[in-house]
Amino acid sequence: RDGADGAARRQPRYVLFPSTPRVLGEMYGHFVRSSPSHVLAYYSNMGPIHADPTDEKRVVGRRHGSSQIRVVVIAIHGSGRNADDYLYSAAVAAKLQTQYPAGSVLVLAPRFLAREDGDVYISAPPDVAEGSVLRWNVTGPIIHGWRYGADSLGPADGVSSYEAVDSLVEHFALDPARYDRLDRIVVVGHSAGGQLVHRWALLSGSAAWGDGDDDDDGARPV
């Protein structure tokens, strides 16, 4: 749309939103298979999703009120594995959309770590052992195998990247008592992350989708 002087109005290239080093700098851990021996690293715009007995107010369901969460966005990074950038971008999108209050959109950005990333610190839950954090092969013979559903490497081996995403989705979808106002779960990805999301959506056998009966109330990825 033209302005009063006839000059075309342009959409700003960047939209910034306030953040803190704690939001972008802290990684949390999600227990895949409900086991502390297999922990998926992730970033969150609202803090950890699992109970932290040392700081109850930090947990999403307590600090923000689980009934406040209407939408969960799971943003999957590309081959650069810069999950913090994807958290920021998805959080900006959450603030720009108008369908839901921005404060009701929980954004998670899992990080498919590699051995080359070195030691990482999981700030919550407490006492996550370094050897329990999931890592994937990002070199040959198949580069960035996590985008194809590859299993994690040892010592926390044997967890497919698809299973890791399933587990995140199930944390919310299979706990309606806690997330009683949850309307939708959105899983998005870019580049290698987009490849993962498409393949996962086709191949996921998660309990979140029900048993496949025609009269089942379960959902499917779309």
Low-confidence stretches: none
Helix content: 10-25%
Multimerization state? single chain
* Number of helical segments with 4 or more residues: 5
Largest sheet: 6 strands, mixed
* Mean model confidence by pLDDT: 85
Number of strands: 6
Strand adjacency order, main sheet: 5-1-2-4-3-6
The best one-word shape is globular
Q: Summarize the helix and strand pattern as letters.
A: HEEHEHEEHEH
> Strand percentage, roughly?
5-15%
Span between termini: 33 Å
Radius of gyration: 18 Å
Structural class from helices and strands?
alpha/beta
Describe the structure in brief.
With 222 residues, this protein is of the alpha/beta class. 23% of the residues lie in helices and 15% in strands. The protein has helices at 21-25, 60-65, 83-96, 161-173, 192-203; strands spanning 27-31, 39-44, 71-76, 105-111, 122-124, 184-189.
Architecture overview:
The chain is of the alpha/beta class and 222 residues long. It has five helices and six strands. The chain has helices at 21-25, 60-65, 83-96, 161-173, 192-203, and strands at 27-31, 39-44, 71-76, 105-111, 122-124, 184-189. The chain has a six-stranded mixed beta sheet, sandwiched between helices. The radius of gyration is 18 Å and the shape is globular. The two termini are 33 Å apart. The model has no long low-confidence stretch (mean pLDDT 85).
